[in-house]
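Standup notes
- DV: blocked on the single-chain target, sequence here:
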Amino acid sequence: MLTFQKYALGALQTNAYVVVNSERTHAVVIDPGTADGALMRKLDGLKVEAILLTHAHFDHIGGVDALRRKYGCPVYIHSAEKDWLTDAAKNGSLRWSDVTPAIVTDPPEHLLADGQSLQLVGETFLVKHTPGHSPGSVSFLVGDLLFAGDALFRRSIGRTDLPGGNQDQLARSIREKLYVLPDEVLVLPGHGPETTIGEERKENPFVR
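- DV (later): unblocked, structure below
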């Protein structure tokens, strides 16, 4: 059975996820905001197949290069943010210099597109382009798990006042890409506690 572990990292307590296959031999890392020691220890002895990024804001990418160097794993990001890893202005680390140094990493190895399927750790990761928080925001659906990044939170949604954000677009993304999923799908957001699609469809005050 696929398992996952959440790590709240960095000044903004960004959720990173380590997803491990049932044999506990292979892993995928989603949104490594820092090269956290506990996260790295979780990966010891595992084959890290990929780093998946829901988007490229600084608090989601701070650990990318450290993990990529240590584990030799490729990085995946949506094509709309293909140059954000290499540009500290675009990923926001210049703007938030009080909480982070400037972050510049190597380019991604792979670009994602809406509807793409990735075969990783023996599972299918379905890419759902969910822009609005940022132009290249994506959510990853794996069975009944949804790694939603900063699109959908428990009783909230991602902020849209950053460059490239759009509130109407985010609401459309949530209604058309996420709320159509079954009630029992577990939403694993980029910040804060988990929730379900059914709960948010009924209770989220920002998108009905």
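- Follow-up: The first strand starts at residue 3 and ends at 9.
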